[in-house]
Design brief:
Elements: H1 2-47, H2 58-71, H3 73-91, H4 103-138, H5 144-167, E1 171-176, E2 181-184, H6 186-192, H7 196-199, H8 204-208, H9 210-224, E3 229-237, E4 241-253, E5 259-268, H10 270-299, E6 303-307, E7 313-316, H11 318-324, H12 328-331, H13 342-358, E8 362-369, E9 375-386, E10 392-401, H14 403-425, E11 429-434, E12 438-442, H15 444-450, H16 454-457, H17 468-484, E13 488-495, E14 502-513, E15 519-528, H18 530-592, H19 600-629, E16 637-640, H20 641-651, H21 653-656, E17 661-665, E18 670-673, H22 675-691, E19 699-707, E20 711-718, H23 750-760, E21 765-769, E22 775-782
Parallel strand pairs: 17-19
Antiparallel strand pairs: 1-2, 1-5, 3-4, 4-5, 6-7, 6-10, 8-9, 9-10, 11-12, 11-15, 13-14, 14-15, 16-18, 19-20, 20-22, 21-22
Helix pairs in contact: 1-2, 1-3, 2-3, 2-4, 3-4, 4-5, 18-19, 19-23, 20-22, 22-23
């Protein structure tokens, strides 16, 4: 027995030591896992920081979860503290030292610590519950009371867990592998407005809504596949509104390693995202504003400078550097002062320092040396700059080159002196005034003419020497011009002091404006037009006499035209009758030819007589047409010129039969005109082209148009015999023919008719040609015709 005792003591000692060593090893392993997890999370976050800038703590949650899951509460809390220090040290700007009182830093750290602590506590609770459950199962056969005690402890733990999860400002839920809700904390219920009982057992899409579920579905599929998921996204919840969230999905495995579901930790970061967007927008706006400022100053036609609180200049725009021909480094500080003219330097310095001390705006003029060595006058305006909080940060100034203006001002002064002398010696009355005080200046001519002094003329005293019949009209016209701020011109009779006679003057007044466009005075001149008015009256009387004579002459011409029309009709009627007799007797003689033989000479005589009679008939018809064209009433309609040309071409088939003619008829525009008259124009011009190309094989005839702003020009071009341009002025006269060849018969009336018709359409007609190389006839028609008589 004693032997057994002695033998058991060493065994107990060594067993206790082994258990102690195993316990220490296990603890070291737990804390080692915590340190290793935090280290890996830190290293991974640093590597992925460009992509995880909004959620640098995501991987540290995983480190805390792994530490708590594997080692329990203490390693989890150690991982929490280490993760908090790492996040605070590496991921909040500035890195060190940290302002722990800054709420923008403190709040995220506290939320992180609470969430990480919750994870550790949840895992510790799970471990504790698991250990107790295992102990309860082992001792189930010992005591039923102990089982009840363990169930009560578990219930208390669940209550504690529910209490803890309900107090956290994050959404915590558990979803099973079928995507049904099995747990939701109070924040979840408040967010969606549904109690835990209402949500319990429902599918994700029933609570979130179909749209929101489609956004989170890829992440749900990943976590149910056993992968922990962390993401940020904007979610359009059906009952919770659209929010920007940070979510962590952690899978829950059973003893067989199968995913039973997952825990979801969701944080609403909408405000942080909005603040981040606002900050990014503000930073972008600031950068854009700075770039826009530099672009504007570098492209502005002024020289811009800036100085700091030490009075030294720290910026010059490109126009300044281009003007001085110096670099930015040379101008910085007081370097720019080297270019100021020595005579202006001290004055400018005093102005600048006094304004700088008083924080007031200033202006000054000085001469600055240009890149070519010339000193030019600048007008410099400096304005103090203040930060949004009211802190003085320096000056900004702009300089305008006024050298030319300074020279112009001097030239203006000289010019004003010259013009003052000119006005005094001018042989016309010159005055100046304003709408309030009336006349304020008159030249010497006025005083000599009117006999008035400046005191008598000033204001509206000049009205006294105006003819009584003109005063109301003059006053009304001048007041209307002042009201409308417009120039005016009026004829007035002024009384001359030398003989007290009234003489006509033309008075012209115009407003004189300042740079802002405001009228500052009126300037006028009065010129003596009395002699001209007398001459105009005489001319008016002469015109009236001439007008009477013109009316009488017009009546005579109208009577003559009627007599000519009557004569034309009578001549045509009287000429047609003998021509018909001649034609009839010739026809009878030709019929007798079959029974009575005539010699060859007699036959030739008969042919000549018949042809001459026919030609005389044609001539009479064309003369009648020509005489009617001047009095025929025109009928304006819209005409398709292309169709009209085709009709004329068909009419000329008989004349062109047996010949090879290449027609080129271009697309022609529609115009307004008299259809019968314009058809006659085309018939004459195209007929001439066919006639004068009969010696050509093949003949080339082109009909086209040219479109101008106010008119359309039509042309008919051929490759015929042409004509000598030396005689083009005779072309459109009556009985004027430039070809006497028997092959080219004609009356010499057709082109005269063309000209009369086109002139009645308010158009033009002309021609160009080269002998034996063809001719081109042109006529124009206005695009908007004014009907004759309107």
């Amino acid at each position: 027995m004693s032997h057994k005792v002695r033998a058991s003591k060493p065994e107990n000692i060594f067993g206790a030591k082994r258990e102690k060593v195993a316990l220490i090893t296990k603890q070291l392993l737990h804390y080692g896992i915590a340190l290793l997890s935090v280290g890996l999370a830190l290293q991974t976050t640093l590597l992925l920081s460009p992509y995880l800038s909004a959620t640098p703590a995501a991987l540290f949650f995983a480190a805390v979860m792994v530490s708590a899951w594997y080692g329990g509460l203490a390693p989890g809390l150690v991982a929490t503290v280490l993760s908090t220090l790492a996040v605070n040290y590496y991921f909040f700007k500035p890195l060190y030292p940290q302002k722990i009182t800054d709420l923008n830093i403190l709040v995220p750290l506290v939320v992180f610590m609470l969430t990480a602590g919750l994870i550790s506590l949840l895992n510790e609770s799970r471990r504790t519950a698991q250990e107790k459950a295992e102990a309860s199962l082992k001792s189930l056969h010992q005591s039923e009371i102990l089982v009840k005690s363990n169930e009560e402890a578990l219930r208390q733990q669940e209550i504690q867990l529910r209490l803890i999860t309900d107090t956290l400002p994050v959404l915590i839920s558990f979803v099973d592998s079928e995507r049904r809700y099995r747990f939701n904390n109070r924040a979840y219920q408040e967010w969606f407005g549904h109690s835990a009982a209402e949500v319990y057992g429902k599918y994700l899409w029933e609570v979130l809504g179909e749209t929101a579920y489609e956004v989170v579905r890829p992440y749900v599929e990943k976590v149910l596949a056993g992968e922990q998921v962390t993401f940020e996204s904007q979610i359009p919840y059906e009952d919770g509104g659209t929010r920007y969230i940070n979510a962590i999905y952690v899978p829950q495995f059973n003893n067989q390693g199968t995913v039973e579901g997952y825990a979801a930790l969701i944080t609403d970061i909408s405000e942080q995202q909005a603040a981040l967007r606002s900050r990014n927008q503000a930073e972008a706006a600031l950068r854009e504003s700075e770039a826009r400022f530099r672009y504007m100053t570098d492209t502005a036609p002024v020289l811009v400078w800036m100085s700091g609180t030490d009075t030294l200049c720290n910026y010059f725009n490109k126009p300044w550097l281009d003007f001085t021909g110096r670099t930015l480094e040379q101008e910085m500080g007081n370097g720019w002062a080297e270019g100021v003219h020595p005579d202006d330097f001290q004055r400018c310095l005093n102005t600048y320092i006094n304004a700088f001390d008083a924080r007031q705006k200033f202006t000054m003029e000085y001469r600055l040396r240009r890149f070519d060595g010339e000193y030019r006058w600048l007008f410099d305006t400096g304005v103090p700059r203040f930060a949004p909080i009211g802190e003085f940060i320096g000056y900004i100034g702009s300089c305008v080159d006024i050298h030319d203006r300074k020279l112009a001002e001097k030239a203006l002064r000289d010019s004003e002196e010259r013009y003052r002398i000119l006005t005094e010696v001018s042989p016309q009355a010159i005055w100046m005034g304003d709408s309030r005080d009336g006349i304020t200046y008159c030249n010497q001519y006025w005083f000599d003419y009117s006999g008035l002094t400046m005191e008598q003329t000033a204001g509206y005293g000049w009205i006294d020497i105006i003819h009584p019949n003109d005063r109301d009209r003059v006053f009304k016209t001048s007041m209307q011009a002042v009201t409308n701020a417009t120039n005016y011109e009026i004829e007035i009779r002024f009384r001359r002091v030398s003989d007290h006679s009234y003489r006509w003057h033309i008075v012209r007044g115009l407003p004189f404006r300042d740079a802002a466009g405001q009228i500052i005075k009126w300037v006028g001149i009065a010129s003596d037009i009395h002699d001209r008015k007398v001459a105009e009256d005489s001319l008016q009387q002469l015109n009236e006499v001439l007008e009477q004579r013109i009316q009488e002459r017009t009546a005579q011409l109208e009577a003559t035209n009627k007599e000519l029309e009557s004569f034309s009709y009578s001549v045509s009627h009287d000429l047609r009758s003998p021509l018909r007799h001649i034609a009839g007797f010739i026809e009878l003689l030709e019929k007798l030819h079959s029974s009575t033989s005539l010699d060859e000479t007699s036959q030739r005589y008969l042919g000549i007589i018949a042809q001459t009679a026919k030609q005389a008939g044609i001539l009479i018809d064309e003369l009648l047409t020509f005489s009617r064209m001047g009095r025929t009433e025109m009928r304006y309609i819209n005409l398709n010129m292309e169709e009209l040309v085709q009709e004329v071409k068909r009419d000329l088939i008989t004349e062109s039969s047996g010949r090879i003619i290449h027609w080129q008829i271009e697309s022609l525009p529609e115009v307004q005109g008299d259809p019968s008259m314009l058809r006659l124009v085309l018939r004459n011009l195209i007929g001439n082209a066919v006639k004068y190309t009969q010696t050509r094989n093949p003949a080339e005839i082109t009909v086209g148009s040219i479109n101008y702003e106010n008119e359309v020009v039509f042309f008919i071009q051929d490759n015929g015999v042409g004509f000598n341009m030396q005689y083009v002025h005779k072309l459109f006269g009556v009985f004027q023919r430039l070809h006497s060849d028997p092959k080219f018969e004609g009356t010499g009336v057709g082109l005269a008719n063309v000209q009369r018709i086109i002139h009645r359409h308010n158009g033009r007609v002309w021609a160009e040609a080269i002998v034996d190389r063809g001719a081109t006839f042109y006529f124009s028609l206005p695009k908007l015709l004014t009907k004759e008589g309107e």
